Amino acid sequence: xxxxxxxxxxxxxxxxxxxxxxxxxxxxxxxxxxxxxxxxxxxxxxxxxxxxxxxxxxxxxxxxxxxxxxxxxxxxxxxxxxxxxxxxxxxxxxxxxxxxxxxxxxxxxxxxxxxxxxxxxxxx
Length: 124
Fold this sequence. Notes:
- The model has no long low-confidence stretch (mean pLDDT 95).
- The chain is built from no helices and eleven strands.
- The protein starts with a strand and ends with a strand.
- It is mainly β.
């Protein structure tokens, strides 16, 4: 059983930067695909950034060039660096994980472990 705990949410002004963290326990993170999803009020949950067990990264078009996902396997921690934030980035951000092979595309797997979420609010 994998437990995921996000941290780092908060309020930031438009154009600013912010970093989220996700601490994983109960498994070796390097064997898992991991991702960040977000959900804004009255909108569907969307995948934002993904990283495979090989280190392969994928991004939603809406954040490409602004967000960067990274993982620190020895620390079992996932990060999301968010730059040039926009009000439309306001959402609850969730960390997710799924055990996957090194060749798996991280944006094509069904994630089955989820954190409780952390709120990011971007003001204009």
